[in-house]
Design brief:
alpha+beta, Ribosomal Protein S5, domain 2
Amino acid sequence: MKIALDLWDNKIPDFKRKILQNVVVDRWSKYTVVWWFVESREEVKKFIKAMLQDKYFRKATHNTYAYRIQQENWSILESKNDDWETGAWNCVLRELQRADAVNIVLVVTRYFGWVKLQADRFKNVIDASKIFLKELD
């Protein structure tokens, strides 16, 4: 399936966004990771809203995300959403913190493969996040 994600009429340079599709596949569950450069909570909301308009992400089982934004006073604004993949947001946020990544929203999308992964789903979310964060180095 092709991912469109032509957000904001492509006014954002390519280096400000990246998509890695099916970076982890485990018992037919597939994980895709999307990164987007953000500088405000409003940009995060705009990105998530636009992302969910894309059929690929809208039909996914879960779109778990976390973000970290450096404020003008150098404090870090962090937040997350697990999209009913309970606890997965913590895995994404923790990997962003370990990489000391700022001004980024990281989304891990899961397509459920009809086999319950139990705790392995957290390992997969962490692995998908790590694979993606290596791309930033």
